[in-house]
Q: What sequence folds into this?
């Protein structure tokens, strides 16, 4: 009789480290750093490059051409070299669902998409989420494999809910128009939650990066808090965001984690609290089987201050940062 053979039990997915930081652009004093993209963010690469997956928000129109939106007070645009700079800094995913992604209209988008496609297959590679040729592509996650663990990252914006923000309602992608992943209104919210549910079926760890809240506010809005719980219920293990240009509270959300506001990271202006920043690194242990919930086992900040050159530098005495973080956790209802 033939000898029975046993099928080896597959190894469970292993833990991963995920580093997240806030808003990045290349305006003002930062623009000349793109003359050499490989060193543009060199002074601040350590914590991002050390993680298995690093994610930031690229807060700018990408590409060349177009005209600045006359309805907006601030308009940003960076050449495709911005993607090279992020990749060289150790960033794996750039979120672009934000209220500056179409500051120069849709004319630059064909060139931007060509650069995004090239970045995805470059060495090192960089994925862009939250911006697409149509709404399905805009909401599609990036999937990264880390030693057998699949990490899905997706991005969406709710900046239209901020009464202080520039008008960006026409930035949204549709079935036949390129643009951002817009999660404003019931239909946009449902689309975002469905995208998270689909990502959760295919990945071991799901990260949702939102552009949300109100500029200048240090406590998350009720909308942010409700959406964070809904995202976690839909399958997001890590929920992070930016838009306030200030740090907001972070802490555990069930087995996962939420960081409502990551502030600025590489930014051309600094003033008081807007200069306070850092990298948040999360250790995440996936569930032993697909369909279970991953668990964030450790969270640690590397605090920094943005200097006159627009780049963050580590702070040696973190006592003020830790005290502020405790206050922000309290107003966010997090421990």
A:
């Amino acid at each position: 009789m033939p000898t029975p053979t046993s099928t080896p039990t597959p190894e469970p997915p292993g833990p991963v480290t995920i580093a997240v930081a806030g808003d990045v652009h290349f305006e003002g004093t930062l623009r000349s750093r793109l003359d050499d993209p490989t060193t543009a963010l060199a002074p601040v690469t350590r914590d991002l490059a050390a993680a298995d997956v690093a994610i930031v928000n690229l807060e700018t129109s990408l590409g060349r051409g177009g005209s600045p939106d006359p309805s907006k007070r601030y308009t940003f645009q960076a050449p495709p070299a911005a993607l090279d700079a992020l990749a060289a800094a150790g960033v794996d995913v750039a979120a672009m669902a934000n209220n500056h992604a179409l500051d120069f209209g849709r004319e630059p988008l064909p060139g931007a998409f060509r650069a995004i496609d090239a970045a995805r297959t470059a060495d090192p590679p960089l994925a862009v989420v939250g911006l697409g040729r149509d709404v399905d592509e805009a909401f599609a996650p990036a999937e990264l494999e880390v030693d057998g663990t699949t990490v899905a990252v997706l991005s969406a914006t709710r900046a239209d809910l901020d009464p202080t923000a520039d008008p960006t309602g026409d930035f949204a992608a549709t079935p036949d128009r390129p643009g951002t992943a817009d999660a404003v209104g019931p239909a946009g919210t449902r689309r975002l939650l469905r995208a998270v549910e689909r990502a959760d079926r295919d990945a071991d760890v799901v990260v949702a990066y939102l552009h949300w809240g109100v500029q200048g506010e240090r406590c998350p809005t009720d909308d942010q808090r409700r959406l964070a719980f809904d995202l976690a219920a839909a399958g997001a293990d890590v929920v992070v965001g930016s838009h306030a240009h200030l740090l907001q509270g972070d802490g555990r959300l069930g087995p996962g984690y939420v960081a409502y506001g990551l502030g600025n990271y590489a930014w051309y202006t600094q003033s008081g609290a807007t200069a306070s920043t850092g990298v948040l690194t999360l250790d995440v242990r996936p569930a032993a089987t697909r369909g279970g919930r991953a668990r964030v086992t450790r969270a640690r900040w590397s605090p920094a201050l943005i200097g006159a050159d627009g780049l963050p530098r580590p702070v040696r005495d973190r006592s003020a940062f830790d005290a502020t973080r405790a206050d922000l956790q309290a107003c966010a209802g997090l421990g």
